Amino acid sequence: MPSLLGLEFHLTQRGNAQHTRYGWLRLTPAYSVHTVANLLKHYAMADDIVLDPFCGSGTTALACAERGLACISTDINPFLVWLARVKTRVYTNTDIEQFRHIAGEIIQHIESIPLDVIWLPEIHQREKWWDPEILHLLGALFYQINHLQHQYTEAVTDLLKIAFCRLVILHSHASFNHQSMSFKKLRQPGLFARTIDDLGLTWQSSVNDIVCSLRTPIITPPAIHLHDARQLTTLIPHNSISLVITSPPYPNRMSYIRELRPYMYWLGYLRNGRDAGELDWQAIGGTWGVATSYIGRWQIPSDHGLAYPSFAEIIQRIAQNSDLLARYVAKYFVDMQQHIAELYQITKKNARILYIIGNSRFYDVLVPTEQILASILQTAGFERIETIPLRKRTSKKELYEYIVSATKV
After folding, report:
1. pLDDT value, residue 194
2. Using CB atoms within 10 A of its CB, is residue 363 exposed (0-12), middle (13-18) or buried (19+)?
3. Please, are residues 56 and 81 in contact by the beta-carbon 8 Å criterion?
4. Who's near 185: CB < 8 A, 6+ residues apart?
């Protein structure tokens, strides 16, 4: 494994911000395009079929598409599947010009939209997210985008929705000064002032950024599927994947649904908190809302087969402080073991497997995710397993990100 140390500044989602289509939206599920680019440079062959079973915001899929590599990506979250497809689509000059033109038109009419036709999402404590004036302006803009869907192609209206999502977060009270999304302590307007003029400036800037980023060509569009990573054999033929580059959720109890709520509510992927919790329960590592209740009732299978020597001790030590967190950690690795067993069947001989993963700590118990994942890979039948530190994470001092690599011999 070639060393990637010393590149820590670029090896985070922040490094994606100004990089072609990667910076369209600020998302916690995004991981570093620079990491993916380095891995593709060292390991990808022209005839490879690359798999990312935890697609997230589409980083691996987009990196492959820009390099002409065939790629299959899956994710269980329908919003992320939509986002990855929009990012990796081939847009015609007509699409781009229509997007630019209609974006300029609709921002001029949002104050004339009657209040009684504006729909607003039922996100919990909506007033924490947006000031009332901004909220209704966003609602008026979204009303127009929805009513354009029968007049323009899906490509054009999807680009309008991307620009809209940028406004949703830029004019909110959301703060990204921590590892996950939080809210500003002071109840002030969002990043910009609350006037229509300022909203219009943000909109035009977002549209210009998107148009500029579309200049990078998509050589080979990927196949992106709404699918469970624990059921890969129902989608992908056996012995067909030659390279896997992915970053699964970390066992740190960070809910990606929580981070994505503003986008998912506005675009209709969530209607209420119950929807959010149910979707998080389906995901590996999810704990939002009702998912927490389900985890509290979940029992670790007696035949789980996890061979890591200290696994039972780790779970027991966490349980001394929190039975719920112990179940959460155990379920995470049971799910990952099921995923990796499926992965073994769809990868071909000599396939390279590359996971970007971070460890975790609960109370005083360090969970060596990279070591447990390496053990699971070995149990599944993979060989030549290596664990390489990638970067120091910006939270607790013990937390690192690793590349765990393996080969199907």
Report:
1. 56
2. exposed
3. no
4. none
Instruction: Say which residues have a Cβ less than 8 Å from residue 88's Cβ, sequence separation at least 6.
Output: 21, 58, 61, 62, 65, 218, 221, 222, 224
Residue 107 contacts residue 99 (beta carbons within 8 Å): no
Q: Splitting the chain (409 residues) into consecutive groups of 10 residues, what average pLDDT does each group show?
A: 42 52 81 91 97 96 97 98 98 97 96 94 92 94 95 97 96 73 59 70 96 94 98 98 97 88 96 94 92 95 92 97 97 97 98 97 96 98 96 81 97
The pTM of this model reads: 0.92
- Please enumerate in sequence order all residues whose Cβ is within 8 A of that of 163, keeping only pairs 6 or more positions apart, or say none: 103, 203, 206, 207, 210
CA atoms within 13 A on the CB side of 32: 24
What is d(CA 129, CA 140) in angstroms, rounded to the nearest whole number? 17
71 to each of 23, 56, 83, 229, how far by Cα in Å? Answer: 20, 14, 16, 15
For residue 329, which of 363, 380, 353 has the smallest C-alpha distance? 363
Task: Report residue 302 CA to chain centroid gap.
Answer: 32
- What integer pLDDT is reported at residue 30 of this predicted model? 66
Q: Is 254 helix (H, G, I), strand (E, B) or coil?
A: coil
Q: Domains plus CATH for the chain?
A: 13-89+218-407 (3.40.50.150), 93-213 (no CATH)
Angstrom distance (rounded) from CA 152 to CA 159: 11
Under a CB-based contact definition with an 8 Å cutoff, are residues 291 and 272 in contact? no
Pairing type for strands 347-358 and 241-246 reads parallel
What pLDDT sits at residue 227?
A: 98
DSSP state of 18: T
Q: Are 40 and 61 in contact (CB under 8 A)?
A: no
Token output for 355 = 């996971």
Task: Locate 319 and state its tokens.
Answer: 């349980």
Structure tokens at 25: 């939206």
Helix (DSSP H) and strand (DSSP E) numbers for the chain = 14, 11
**Nearest Cα to Cα of residue 338 among 175, 257, 228, 191:** 228
d(CA 168, CA 20): 21
Q: Alpha-carbon distance 81 to 104, whole Å?
A: 27
Residue 100's pLDDT is 97
pLDDT of residue 2: 43
The answer to whether the CB of 226 falls within 8 A of the CB of 54 is no
